[in-house]
């Protein structure tokens, strides 16, 4: 009976595993935006005024993915319909400046591969995730990268339970004062060589909590991330592709 039930489930759901994560595009996902070239109405600041995280710049129009929470308010508020969110999941960057989308820009900035990281971690990367005051949305998406759909372990990339076993510290959340010591302890416990991945708008810029009294981002100011993965929350494909790009894995 159990076998027949399993067969019925398989027949109804089909194959869940994504064969090629590098070519997959999620359906219904609000991903990397495009900003059409063209004049704005005189003195118009509708998109900037609608943004809750000050991610929009004007003249020319720019959008900082490190601050963007992908709420679509800018696209809805623009009378010229200049901003459009596409389903493209690949949005990571090596530097904060890589996360700025500019008006009329067609080429997508990719994460630049690191020869050193490829040599050290290209065949095996162990990651330890710390939620530094996150809402659990980024954490849920990161947990999904190891499920049957994405199966990141096929590339030798795995989560570990202890920072002592980790190569990369994956941070989510705005870095609250209550988590300040925990983040530092996790980093100190990691053996060299090691690096940091900032995941989500909160970790990258503070997001909606930028400047809040309960936030202390001193750690990231002292120890800069080697990889930035934008989103609110990021799609698993955004995270996986950014890591694979950094390691130079085709």
TrEMBL record:
The keyword Iron applies. Residues 31-58, 59-88 form the 4Fe-4S ferredoxin-type domain. It comes from the Bacteria. Keywords: 4Fe-4S, Iron, Iron-sulfur, Metal-binding, Oxidoreductase. Its cofactor is [4Fe-4S] cluster. InterPro entries: 4Fe4S_Fe-S-bd, 4Fe4S_Fe_S_CS, Complex_I_20kDa-like, NADH_UbQ_OxRdtase-like_20kDa. One of its GO terms (molecular function) is 4 iron, 4 sulfur cluster binding. The keyword Zinc does not apply. Pfam families: Oxidored_q6. It is an enzyme of class 1 (oxidoreductase). Its EC number is 1.-.-.-. SUPFAM superfamilies: 4Fe-4S ferredoxins (SSF54862), HydA/Nqo6-like (SSF56770). Belongs to the FrhG family. Belongs to the complex I 20 kDa subunit family. This is NAD-dependent dehydrogenase subunit. The lineage of its organism: Bacteria, Pseudomonadati, Myxococcota, Polyangia, Polyangiales. The gene is hycG.
């Amino acid at each position: 009976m159990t076998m027949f039930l399993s067969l019925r489930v398989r027949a109804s759901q089909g194959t869940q595993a994504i064969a090629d994560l590098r070519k997959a595009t999620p359906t219904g996902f609000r991903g990397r935006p495009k900003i059409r070239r063209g004049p704005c109405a005189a003195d118009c600041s509708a998109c900037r005024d609608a943004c809750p995280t000050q991610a929009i710049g004007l003249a020319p129009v720019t959008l900082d993915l490190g601050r963007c929470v992908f709420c679509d308010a800018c696209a809805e508020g623009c009378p010229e319909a200049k901003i459009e969110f596409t389903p493209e999941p690949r949005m990571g960057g090596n530097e904060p400046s890589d996360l700025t989308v500019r008006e009329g820009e067609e080429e997508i900035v990719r994460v630049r591969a690191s020869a050193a990281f490829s040599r050290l971690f290209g065949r095996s990367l162990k990651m330890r995730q710390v939620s530094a005051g996150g809402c659990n949305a980024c954490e849920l998406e990161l947990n999904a990268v190891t499920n049957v759909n994405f199966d990141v372990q096929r590339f030798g990339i795995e989560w570990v339970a202890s920072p002592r076993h980790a190569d990369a510290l994956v941070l989510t959340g705005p870095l609250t004062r209550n988590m300040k010591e925990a983040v530092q302890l996790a980093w100190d416990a990691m053996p060299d060589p090691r690096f940091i991945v900032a995941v989500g708008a909160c970790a990258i810029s503070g997001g909606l909590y930028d400047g809040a009294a309960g936030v202390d981002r001193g750690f990231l100011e002292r120890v800069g991330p080697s990889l930035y993965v934008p989103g609110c929350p990021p799609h698993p494909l955004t995270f996986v592709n950014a890591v694979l790009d950094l390691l130079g894995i085709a």
